[in-house]
Each structure stands twice: as structure tokens, then as C-alpha cells.
Design brief:
six-stranded mixed β-sheet; four-stranded antiparallel β-sheet; 18 helices; about 60% helix; elongated; ABC1_TM_dom; ABC1_TM_sf; membrane
């Protein structure tokens, strides 16, 4: 049987990217992709015209002394140039729009998968690593999928077209150039793996530097409070020197990689000039044709570099695809919309619940039984690490037990649609987050339809009326700037106000008084009794003495719940 609460779809092998994840957003934009492809091909064809027009201008106009013909071809060159310029601008706009929409779609798909993982699975990777995959790896993969397709076809058409135009003027010179093409290809192919390895090393180093900045900015006051400023500066110095070393390595190998094609192009030009000049002197080739041949020679060499770039892009994309595949290989929780809607008063029973984290040998919860009737206030205390927070995650459906069951009004929790179940539940975290944005946006996170009046009422109910009245911008106050100025008690009250707006049936409070002194903790408990009324409450705390008027009290120890006297220890 599939693990309760998790998607029964078999996990993929690491390194095996679900390519449908890339195909679906492309399929949804086939018309835009076809339009962009057509514009790119027309632009490539237009690029083949100027050398041909220049040849006609020289041979049929200048060499014949026919100014009218010269004027005609000059006008044609101007028209082609303007058309190419307009087409280039239109193509860029189309490309940017399609690229941005594709990248957004891919990010949404990956984020959807991350948000369906059990919290411990993706949080364990660290924010720096996840940001590197969400930003760097996704961008590389998206760029290869889109630019590789367009650039590859455009370069291939340009190469074949330029060779065909050379053959139109001189099959002998086309043969000479055709021989040089594989030489250039082999040179670039020989250097490309070394360049790709160094680019990958530079990208990894950039990720380390990004992680350094995230840690420093997130924990700046701690570093200051520990007098670690010099250590952070030294760390930055070391990371900067290493990044410079890797950057210079990329530039040096890139120079050697580019030097060969440039040398080959110079030799090819010399050969075309020598052979072409001889043919011109012999009267077998016209001067304008020689000028056009030199122009088409450059058009032959450029696509080779583009096609080799496509090869290098494929190598980088494979690395990024493997890193993203690791995330997709993580087993997801079941679809939050799949299941029944809860309809009863909300009686909760835990029966023989057993749980441990992945890779953990011993049970964290080794057979927990608990009854939580509607409207009751229940406290579970116990030492840190006993499994109290894990119990909350199990009730939220964010983790799945290995054995036992959670029932809501007699219905197994894993049979309920998590989305609808969580609409009835408010979770007040141990360290409440003040989300980026305004005070109103933070409060409306759980109740998007709440009016300004309801927001103010919630703040008044939790005792923040005076604090709110002192804010010069009121509900428009940006909490990103205010977060450092909010005390632990104010933060807890803001989290409670946010929960109240949801009008929940069940409130889960995880260490709600951890940041408060005993007097403030008892005052906060009295506030809970006042504002939550008959709402079912489950309080998790290792400071059980702060809470009174309990209907039941338990101690979680050794993976089991032990009933205790339901009175506070004041």
C-alpha cells in the first residue's frame, strides 16, 4: 500500500528528468514558438542577401560604369538593411516575451513540486542550494530549450546557405572552404569540454558566494554580537580570490578556444584571396564575386561557433537537468485537492500513531493515542526534541505516519482533501513569520477577503490597538522594514490576529510563549482564552506552567503521551 499522505506515483531515479515538465509549457506556446522560428529563419535569409547585392553593384554597376544600376542596388541594400533591422527588433521582443513566459512556467512547475514535498525534505537542502537550482539551473535549461532550438536551426540554415552561395560563384572555392569547416569544428570540439568544466566550476563558486551573502544578511546581528566581522571579511576575501581564479581560468581557456577558429578564418581568407585573385586575373571570376565570397566566408565560420556553442549548452543543460531531477525524484505528498471535504464539528482522534524522520532508526513517536474533542483546550509539554512539532506537522498533513491513524470526525485524515482540511485549521508557529509586504498583506495571507475594518478589529482583539495607532502608515506599513522593530510578544500577537481572521475550528499553537517572560506568557494565555473562546486548541510547549484552564494536559516523553493533571503549575 502507498504511504499515507503521499502520492503513490513511483519515485523517479535521480538524474532522470521528467521531460514532460519541459514539453508541456512548450506545447502550450507552439504558436508563439512557430512565429519566433519563422522570424528567425527570415532574418537568416535576409542576412544572405547583402553580399549578393554588393557583388551585383560592383560587377554590373561600378565595373560597367552604370550609375543607375549602382543606385538601384544601393537602394536595395538600404531596404534590406532596414528590413533586417526591423525584423531584428521584432524578433528580440518576441524572444524576450516567450523566454520570460517559459521561465515563469518552469519555475511555477518546480515550485509546485517543492510545495508538495514534506517540509523536511526540501528544507534540508538549504536556501542557497534551492535558489541556485530555481534560478541558475532553471535559466540554463530554459535557455537551452528555447535558444538551442532557434539558434541551432538558424546556424544550420546560415551555414548551408553561405556554402551554397559560395558554390554559386565558384565550386572550387566552396570545396576549399568546406574542407576548413570540419577543421574548425574539431578545434572547437577539442577545447569545449575543458571550457564547460571551468564554466561549471565558476557557476558552483558563484553559488557559494551567493550563499555567503544570504547567511551574512540573514544572521548579520549574530555575527556582530559575536565580534565575527573580521572572520566574515576574511571569508569574503577567500571566496572572492577563488572566484577570480576560476574566472581567469574560464577566460584563458575561452581565449585558446577562440584563437583556433580565428586563425583558421584568417588562413581561409588568405587562401580565398590568393586563389580568388588568381581567378580574377585569369578572367574566370569577377571582382564583385570575390568580395561576395569573402563576405560569405565569414558567414560560414560564424555558424560553426554557434553549433559548437549548442553542443556546450547541451553539456551545461545536462548538468542542470540532473540537479533538477534530484528535486523531482523526492516523493511528493498527495494532491492537496484530492479527497473528501470535512463536514463534522471537528473531533480529532490519534490512534497508535508512529512516526520517525527519513533515515532515523528510533521512533520519534512510538504509539501516540490522543482524543481532542471540539472546543477543548489541550496542552502537550515535554523536552525539546521529543517530537512535539512533528506531531503538529502530522495534524497539518505535512508529514505522514508510518503506522497508526489520525481521524477527524471518524474520517481518516489522509482521506480528506488537505486543502479543505487546512481551511478549518490555523497554525501559529513557534517563530511567526512577518511576510514581505505591508501589514495588511501579512494579515490577509490566510483571509484574502477580509476588509480593512476586520483587520483593525483583529488587531484590537489581540491587544495591538495602541501599537497599531502609532504606525504612521497604518495597514500600509511595510513589515519588511518593521520586522526588526517588533518585539517577540508583538510578533506572537500579530500571528494570533492573522489566525483569528481565518475563523478556524482548530488552532495549533507551537511554543507560543517561547519568546516571552513568565508574566507576559501568562498574559498571552489569558488573551488566548479570551479571543479563541470555544475554538479547539492544541498547545505544544515545554513551558507548560504558563497555561491554565486546560481540559487536558499530557507530557510527551519517550515517544508516548503521558496524562498529567490539567491545571497550571504556577
Amino acid at each position: 500500500m502507498p504511504e499515507p499522505g503521499h502520492d503513490p506515483t513511483p519515485a523517479r531515479d535521480p538524474g532522470s528528468l521528467p521531460w514532460g515538465w519541459l514539453y508541456r509549457p512548450l506545447k502550450a506556446r507552439l504558436l508563439a514558438l512557430a512565429r519566433l522560428l519563422a522570424l528567425s529563419l527570415v532574418a537568416t535569409l535576409l542576412a544572405l542577401l547583402p553580399p549578393l547585392l554588393t557583388q551585383r553593384l560592383i560587377d554590373q554597376g561600378l565595373m560597367q560604369g552604370d550609375f543607375a544600376t549602382v543606385a538601384t542596388y544601393v537602394a536595395a541594400l538600404v531596404a534590406v538593411g532596414l528590413a533586417a533591422l526591423g525584423l531584428q527588433g521584432l524578433t528580440r521582443l518576441q524572444h524576450v516575451a516567450l523566454s520570460a513566459r517559459l521561465l515563469l512556467s518552469l519555475r511555477r512547475s518546480l515550485l509546485r513540486h517543492l510545495l508538495r514535498l514534506a517540509p523536511g525534505r526540501w528544507q534540508a537542502r538549504g536556501r542557497g542550494d534551492l535558489m541556485s537550482r530555481l534560478d541558475g539551473d532553471l535559466s540554463i535549461l530554459q535557455g537551452f530549450v528555447l535558444d538551442g532550438l532557434l539558434g541551432g536551426l538558424s546556424n544550420l540554415l546560415g551555414l548551408v546557405g553561405a556554402l551554397a552561395m559560395i558554390g554559386l560563384f565558384s565550386p572550387l572555392l566552396m570545396l576549399l572552404v568546406a574542407v576548413l569547416v570540419p577543421i574548425q569544428w574539431l578545434w572547437l570540439r577539442a577545447w569545449r569540454p575543458a571550457l564547460t568544466r571551468r564554466q561549471q566550476a565558476l557557476r558552483e563558486q558563484s553559488g557559494e558566494l551567493s550563499g555567503f551573502w544570504q547567511d551574512t544578511l540573514a544572521h548579520g546581528p549574530w555575527f556582530q554580537g559575536q565580534a565575527l566581522e573580521a572572520a566574515r571579511l576574511n571569508r569574503l576575501q577567500g571566496l572572492g580570490h577563488e572566484q577570480l581564479r576560476r574566472l581567469l581560468a574560464v577566460r584563458w581557456v575561452g581565449f585558446l578556444s577562440d584563437m583556433g577558429p580565428q586563425l583558421i578564418l584568417a588562413l581561409a581568407r588568405a587562401g580565398v584571396l590568393l586563389l580568388g585573385g588568381y581567378l580574377v586575373i585569369q578572367g574566370r571570376l569577377q571582382l564583385g564575386e570575390l568580395v561576395a565570397l569573402l563576405a560569405y566566408l565569414g558567414m560560414v565560420m560564424a555558424p560553426i561557433g554557434g553549433l559548437l556553442g549548442l553542443y556546450g549548452g547541451w553539456q551545461r543543460a545536462r548538468v542542470s537537468a540532473a540537479r533538477l531531477a534530484e528535486l523531482f525524484a523526492e516523493p511528493a505528498m498527495r494532491d492537496p485537492y484530492r479527497g473528501e471535504r470535512p463536514t463534522g464539528p471537528g473531533e480529532i482522534r490519534l490512534e497508535g500513531l508512529r512516526f520517525r524522520h527519513p533515515g532515523q532508526a528510533d521512533w520519534l513517536l512510538g504509539g501516540v493515542d490522543l482524543e481532542l474533542p471540539p472546543g477543548h483546550k489541550v496542552l502537550i509539554d515535554g523536552p525539546s526534541g521529543a517530537g512535539k512539532s512533528s506531531l503538529i506537522r502530522l495534524l497539518l498533513g505535512l508529514e505522514a505516519p508510518e503506522a497508526g491513524e489520525i481521524r477527524v470526525d471518524g474520517v481518516p485524515l489522509d482521506a480528506l482533501a488537505r486543502r479543505h482540511w487546512l481551511k478549518r485549521v490555523a497554525w501559529v508557529e513557534q517563530h511567526p513569520s512577518l511576510l514581505r509586504g505591508s501589514l495588511a498583506e501579512t494579515l490577509r495571507a490566510l483571509a484574502p477577503e477580509a476588509s480593512d475594518a476586520e483587520l483593525r478589529e483583529a488587531l484590537v482583539r489581540v491587544g495591538l490597538a495602541e501599537w497599531f495607532d502609532a504606525l504612521p502608515q497604518g495597514l500600509a506599513t511595510e513589515l519588511g522594514d518593521l520586522g526588526g522593530k517588533v518585539s517577540g510578544g508583538q510578533r506572537a500577537r500579530l500571528a494570533l490576529a492573522r489566525a483569528l481572521l481565518k475563523k478556524p475550528r482548530l488552532v495549533l499553537l507551537d511554543e507560543p510563549t517561547a519568546a516571552l517572560d513568565p508574566a507576559a506568557a501568562r498574559a498571552f494565555d489569558a488573551l488566548l482564552d479570551e479571543v479563541l473562546g470555544e475554538t479547539t486548541r492544541l498547545i505544544i510547549s515545554h513551558q507548560g506552567g504558563h497555561f491554565g484552564h486546560l481540559d487536558a494536559r499530557y507530557r510527551l516523553e519517550g515517544g508516548r503521551l503521558i496524562a498529567a493533571e490539567a491545571v497550571p503549575c504556577l
